[in-house]
UniProtKB/TrEMBL annotation, chains A, B:
Keywords: Amino-acid biosynthesis, Diaminopimelate biosynthesis, Lysine biosynthesis, Methionine biosynthesis, NADP, Oxidoreductase, Threonine biosynthesis. Its EC number is 1.2.1.11. The keyword Disulfide bond does not apply. InterPro entries: Asp_semialdehyde_DH, Asp_semialdehyde_DH_beta, NAD(P)-bd_dom_sf, Semialdehyde_DH_NAD-bd, Semialdhyde_DH_dimer_dom. This is Aspartate-semialdehyde dehydrogenase.
Length: 352, 352
């Protein structure tokens, strides 16, 4: 791999695609060749990589020939449609969609937490849900010290989780409302500007939406605790690109806030942001455009002797998506030279 | 009292003051005389009551002479400064500030929950904190059926909680950001538009802010459960005037969501808003300007066999403040003809 990696970005024109381009450049990922793939509607668009213009191509069955690494961020349906082709072409796919995350044959990886899981991959590595990554980054350093017994999460999720179009719509909505006009609702089912609403992903029979179930199931898989007791309420708030979360953690024994603070101050990828004098804790405007997850307001839970309350903000597009994917690619490159195992030729792709 | 009640509104020029004027008119409260009181800076302003212009007066020690009822909503310091004077003048004060809420001699009342508490008043009745009222309205109908063992709340609080000036500032901030300018931060310590931040009320030594502690302590007092296990994370979101809350409730035995739904559908002051087909649940834009607290997304807690998750939105200025105060006044009028007990002449006002 000394010549570098031949990379394809599937979904290059989206919000995460743009961030992937930026991160491959700024992190000096050894890119030998870069192919930008998207839907036929986006083909022909020009994007920049390290100052060089690149043309976006429509994805076809030939797109993955002579590609080593696919960074896929074009939604679940596109990933399901193309991942098998990419694997058969010999590329490793790091998939940002939910398509393969719960597939037992696909590792679901946050490099700071479960890098070892990557060893079992068969051509696809899944990037977890954004809210899940941010919460896990704050919870895992504590969980490693003392297993979490129960977690109760409430999210404050930005427009970026619904893509670039949603971010634009939030701004358009805000301006409409300020001007006394009805806000457009195309990307979102309801007005988000000056409003909040429960996350609009599909509802399950148990009343939880998919976003909430992702957090529960994916955390169990990432932490390797299949019966972790967890619940979440996911809510969209009128913020552009960073998510925040209120996290209540319960342990088997008291967990001193001071110890949690020390662990999080040392945790890679985490910035402890607590200025008690100034009443200053993580905010989306701190996290936007940053790599780290910002954690603070760590306090002993008034309602439970073994509980901790904490608060976090993290960039949904960066650590919540693109950065984690690039970190997985860096890990693959370091550990394995990016080659899938021999088993990669098996049909491993779930295509329900 | 057949001639009606002589009412003074202390803090008439604020956001809650405006709503009190509106509610006294629309609810046909028997107002015989109405005096609008505010700080000297606001004296001389003209406000309307039932189409009639009224001049705002600066509050003085003479202001409460021949007044039966004071509706105070000018903040804790003003309430502490004037409540004793009002009591000594023979008026009953319904105080919207936090000044007297935890005073054991002062009833803290939500008319749908603990109307009986009013019987013990000595001239002051306290109106609870806005987030507390909204949460309690949803939780109490369940608590009455089966005592709550533990409650974990995360709030999504609107700008209105910080007053009319903060609502204006949120709009100004949004416009500034849309125009690429730095947002002004006078009413708030940080930008609220396109951002969220933990509630900026004073922090206690245990790391909780006053807003969170109010919810815990006031709920215990209103429910009459001094050791209720409760925790809260209070967060400001860029919404104009309705608060939302994610509420996790734990009971001693399983509480069927269907039963909770039936109880809340019947609860006075509560509207059950759950359209599972349309993924449509309470939002601030539903609640703004409405009397009821909107509750929905009731689901069995995935993390606890005896847990329930629910979501609510309620108008912070209306049921969270002015409406509850007027309902207390209506209750006093109905039950007691508004007269305080003989004990009212004792010095009952805490003046720390």
């Amino acid at each position: 791999m000394s010549e570098g990696v031949r990379v394809a970005i599937l979904g290059a024109t989206g919000a995460v695609g743009a961030e992937l381009l930026e991160l491959l450049a700024t992190r000096s990922f050894p890119v030998a060749e870069l192919k930008l793939l998207a839907s036929p509607q986006s083909a022909g668009k020009m994007l920049n990589f390290k100052g060089e213009p690149l043309t976006v191509e429509a994805v076809t069955s030939e797109s993955f020939r002579d590609i080593d690494l696919v960074l896929a961020s074009a939604g679940s349906a596109i990933s399901k449609a193309w991942a098998q082709t990419a694997v058969e072409s010999g590329a490793v796919t790091i998939d940002n969609s939910s398509a393969f995350r719960m597939d037992p044959k696909v590792p679901l990886v946050i490099p700071e937490i479960n890098p070892q899981a990557i060893a079992t991959h068969h051509g696809i590595v899944a990037n977890p849900n954004c809210s899940t990554i941010l919460m896990a980054m704050a919870a895992y350093p504590l969980h490693r010290e003392q297993p979490i017994r129960r977690a109760i999460v409430a999210t404050y999720q930005s427009a970026s989780g619904a893509g670039a179009r949603a971010m634009t719509e939030l701004k358009t909505q805000a301006r409409s409302i300020l001007d006394g006009k009805a806000p457009p609702t195309e990307a979102f089912p309801f007005p988000l500007a000056f409003n909040v609403f429960p996350h609009n992903s599909d509802l399950s029979d148990n009343g939880y939406c998919q976003e909430e179930l992702k957090m529960v199931y994916e955390t169990r898989k990432i932490f390797g605790v299949p019966d972790l007791r967890m619940t979440a309420t996911c809510v969209r708030v009128p913020v552009l690109r960073a998510h925040s979360e209120a996290v209540n953690l319960e342990f088997d024994a008291p967990f001193p806030a001071s110890r949690a603070r020390a662990l999080l101050a040392d945790a890679p990828g985490v910035t402890l942001l607590e200025d008690w004098q100034a009443n200053r804790f993580p905010m989306p405007i701190d996290a936007a455009g940053q790599d780290d997850v910002f954690v603070g307001r760590i306090r002993q839970d008034l309602s439970h002797p073994c509980g901790l309350e904490l608060w976090l903000s993290g960039d949904q597009i960066r650590k919540g998506a693109a950065l984690n994917a690039v970190q997985i690619a860096e890990l693959l490159l370091r550990e394995r030279g990016l080659r899938p195992t021999a088993a990669a030729t098996e049909n491993l792709v779930r295509t329900e």
